[in-house]
Structures are given as C-alpha cells and as structure tokens.
C-alpha cells in the first residue's frame, strides 16, 4: 500500500504505513528518496564535524542539515555559487535541508536588533554589519541550491511571557508570508510553527501557516531550555494536527527517546547535534544504552564499542583503542566515535520505521526507555 | 638485476639499482615488502594524526614509525599485548618500526636523570617514576611486536662540547651492546650512530656499531637544531661508510630536499613529522612547491590543492573548500591536508626511486631545489 499524499514540482511525499499517529513515508526531492521518520545529521558549515561525505554514506546518512546563516558569513554565498551549490562544494550527493538562520540569529542574544524588516547584527567573524530578512534568507538558501528551505522566523528564549511570545509569533507569521512570496525558485519550503509553550498561540500559528500552504511543517522554538514534559506536550498537541499529507519536522531534538515519542506523535523529520557533539565528548550510543568512553572500565576492553553494531568503528577497532586515542587527543578518536553515533542514529530511525510497519512501536519505545532514560546534552 | 645483500631470519634486504652512492632496494620483513628509499610516516601513539589505516593505504603508506617510549606510558604495554601487538591494536597490516625512546627521553630535558644503567624520569601523565634501560626498551619493543627495533641510545643537545659528546657517544655504545644482547626475539635491530657534529666521534661510533653487527644502521642526533650544512656534512661523511648490504636510515629528517640529498648520499630510510604536522598548520606540499592554505589567494580557488596530484583530497575537494573548513576549525580540513601531504611524500619517494633507476637523480634534485628551497618546520 502506498498513498501519494503530496506532489508538487520536484517533491513527492508518499505515506506507506500508519500506526496510530505514527507513519512511515518516502520523501523524494530532485529524484533523491529518503525514508521517514528520518534523522538529519548536522553539517552546519558544509561538513559534518570530523566526517567526510564517504563516511556519511557508510553510516547510511541520506540527508543532512546545513545552515544558510553560517554559510552566508563563511565562506559566503559567492564561493558556493561558483561551484553551482552546496552539494558540489562539499561533494555531497544526498539531500540537504537548510535552516534559515532564525535560530542562529536568536543565539546571538543581545547583539541583534530585530524589527519588522528583519534582524540586524554584526558578523562575529569580521564585525561587518549584516542584515537578515525573510527575502535574504530565501535568496541565500536558493543560491546554496538546497533541497528543502525553511522560512525565516524569530526564536525567543524560554521562558517568555505570553505577550512577548504572541508578538514574536505574529512577527514570525508575517515573515513566513514574506518567505513564501520570496520563494521564486519554487523549491520545497517548510513553515515553522511558533508560539512558545502557550497552546492557544501554537494553535493560531499552526492554523495561519496551514492556510499559507507550505510544503511541509516544522515545530520550532523547542529544545530551548524548557522541561521535557513541556516539550512533549507541545509536540503531542500539535504534530498530529499538522497536515497529514505533508512532512512534519520537529527542529533541534534529540535524544533517542525524545525522537521516539515524537515519532509516536506523528513526526517525520528530526535534526540535532547530539549524536555528533556527544561523540566528540566521548558519549556513545549503544544497543545497551550510553557508554562514556572516559570511564575507566573501558581501559582494557578489547571488544568494540557495541558488539551488535555494524559501523566502521565497531567492525574495525576496539573501545580500548579508541579510548587510548581519545586520551592522547588524537583526532581519529573523535571521528570514529562520530561515525559510531551517526550510524546508531540512522539505525535507530530504521528500527522506528520497522516498528511502525510491524505495529510494535510501543514495545520498541519500552526497550529504548530501558536504555536511554538518562541521556543528557553533553 | 637483484642482489640479495642481507638475509637474516625474517628479514631480507635486496639492492636493485645503484647510482653513485644512491640505491634502490626492497626490504622484506615478515613477508611484507617495501621499496627503499622509503619514508616512514609518524604514528607515535598508534595512529597517524588525523588518519586511520585505510587512509594510510590510500596514500600508499607501507611502513610507519611508532614509539616504544610513548606507548609504554600510554596506553601501556599490557593492553597492546592483549591484542597480540601494535598491528592488531591499531589495525595496521603494514610494517612498523619503533623508536626506542632515546630521543623522547632527551626531549624531557632536565627532568631526566641519566646514569650508566639507563634513564630515570617521572611520567608526564601520572607522575610515576619510570626507568628506561636498553633492556626495558628492547623488551617493550618486543612486546609491541614491532617489525624493526631501534637500540636505546642517548641523544644530546646541539651544540655540545666534544668531551660531553664523547662521553655520551660512549654511553650510547655501551647501551647499544646491551640492546643487542637483550634482543631475545631476534627481531631486526638497528644500531644508531651518534657523535654529534664531530667527525672523529661519528667515525668511532660508526666503527664500533659495525663491529657489533646490527641489521641496519641509523644516523641519530641530527635535526636537533644544527645548521643544514652541518647536518649535510654528517650525512655525506657517514652514510656511504655504513655497510652497503644493510638498510641505512637517517632519523628525524625531513624536508623534501634534505631527503633527496640524503638519498644521494646513500640513505634508504627516513621519518619525520613534517608532512603530518605541517599539514595541520596548513602548509601543503605540491608539484609546484609549498602552498599555505591560509593565504588569501586560495579563498576563491575552485581547483584542487594540486592539479597533478591523485590523492583523495585532490581528486574530491577544492582548495577553497578545504580552506573554508580550516577557517571554521573543522577537523576534516586537517585530515584532508594530512592525506595530501602524506600522499605527496610517498610520491616523492617513488620519484626518487625512479630517478635512481633512470640515473637522473641530479636532474630530479634540481627540480626539487626550484620548488622546495624554502621549506621550514612549521
């Protein structure tokens, strides 16, 4: 059974299996197909930290997230255009989703001035004044020749009071409209639901964006410091009310369990720095839970990181060797641990898809709960 | 024409071509054969910095240098023994030569007490008292299951007066004898000629070591701060007087031209951190000389590091992409630049061998002189 749910220019989203709110689908853009639920590994600057593109392929990665804001500042869009786009610049033939820069502008904190027009700030690299608007962000993403674009929105800090959140959400809606209008290339463009932790604001944002008819919908403004319960509530309340026939994406989460809960709530796409960043800090995801390589117990362990793992690191090297390299600050340690975690996450997504297909998602989540109750952002 | 020059247990050294003092040969140990003149890439801690063993293979590396002293301190010999040796620990199936630790003890400076027995110092990692003697060094190298061992000797600073140098050289000779006696496994063991910059001391050291009958001979105590001319003089004076039928090795050099001059003087083996360390600092060796990736001129260059190079970095990535990664402190930059330089050095050695075979070594050196007059230790 395959239901072609949404077809538009060079994008097709076809749901294949549904289990309560959860679903598996295939997403095809520019003749490249990925299976959802899907995790996008982070390659902010046109590289996934420590890896090259052949490493990514070996880890079964088929879509990465890059960042319009960062690439605009370094190396600049002119250079990427010389190559015909980011794919050729970084030699990546999988899909690319670019974030618009909204979250990164938000990260600059007090150094950014936001008004109706857009966000103005000084480049942290050379002090130049930079203006980011919905139109500029879409233009940058178009020139990068990304596969999926995100609207330019405002992210606010947690906690924020309801009137600040409402004003920000309304600004983001105006910017969403301008982002859509600016999309001259007709590339797939996703809207981003804001509204903080206020259900009524989330609903207004969601409805307004649905009326604007985007090609996919994200929940934004999460994983900004709110308690897990609050985050789950926003996801559970909103995900299944987003259009069934289009991809649903929760930005910036996460931990294996958070992903699983969101999948159960009907989410299709994810991105997060956890697998890559935690790897560099020696935190490894395995079939039996977290292993911290800096713990003494791995000093003499001649087995791999995870006996059940088929990644390049586990098939070739022992955990004690990688621990030794980590202790000696050898870069190879960071690369092997990243390869392992990225592979783990791709495998996690495959198991989630299989659990949906076999209607055993709750059992699979129960197993994850035994292993990953305690995962923190390292 | 192949002349089997030296055959002993599991080692065979066969000279194939001779051009004045320079020669090409094949060196077989434990059924693994390399061609000389050969450059050994440095893998001090059981990894070549930024690379894994499949990277090394792609760069045509067939022998690496590792370090008994460092591995004894971290991770310790017990762990490496659990794997059956360093090859299995790091998953390297090429040859390994281990340095004995003499040079590293010397690098500790005032923190080491040297007497007739050996060298005593505190571990820089945990403060433990450590004793290194010829017997211990040979034992460590044996347990690492290296392919070629070096005797344990003393290195002294440059400049040192003649009486200090003489005493040290004589101590090294006594240690050489003890190293040889301690070699219970009958693995190939190389002697190291000392004697500083004093011809008469070098000659005494050389003759005494030749009388002891080692399986190969190194010139040690070079590249310790002396002017290039002084270094060349020691090499030119000593290399061709070492036994013709055994491998000759100059330790710790270096620059492409220094290697070429030493090859002309009759040297077969080299090791140096220059290709790997300079890569991490953005200094690239190319067919047209040095390129410093941090120079502005490469910001918009869509070509590879070197059009004539067949390495993984040059076949896949542009110099402007690698420069961008370097600027963003992406580890991939260091790895790609290291891959390039290591490949360059292996290619350099092949070209030197070809120049010897075709009796055109002087022409080839003249070409190198045009490109590499100015290489510094970055």
CATH class of the largest domain in chain A: Alpha Beta
- Assigned CATH superfamily of the largest domain in chain A: Queuine tRNA-ribosyltransferase-like
CATH topology of the largest domain in chain A: TIM Barrel
Let me know the average pLDDT of chain A.
95
Radius of gyration of chain A: 20 Å
- The helix content of chain A is 40-55%
Please list the strands of the largest sheet of chain A in the order they lie side by side.
5-6-7-11-12-13-14-15
Strand content of chain A: 15-25%
Short description:
By secondary structure, the first copy, chain A, is an alpha/beta fold.
Description:
2 copies of one chain form a homodimer. In chain A, 41% of the residues lie in helices and 21% in strands. Chain A has 378 residues and is of the alpha/beta class. Chain A folds into 2 domains: 38-272, Alpha-Beta Barrel (TIM Barrel), CATH 3.20.20.105; 279-372, no CATH class. Chain A has an 8-stranded parallel barrel, surrounded by 4 helices. Chain A has a 4-stranded antiparallel β-sheet with strand order 1-2-3-4. In chain A, strands 8-9-10 form a 3-stranded antiparallel β-sheet. The mean pLDDT of chain A is 95. The interface between A and B is medium-sized, with 35 and 35 residues.
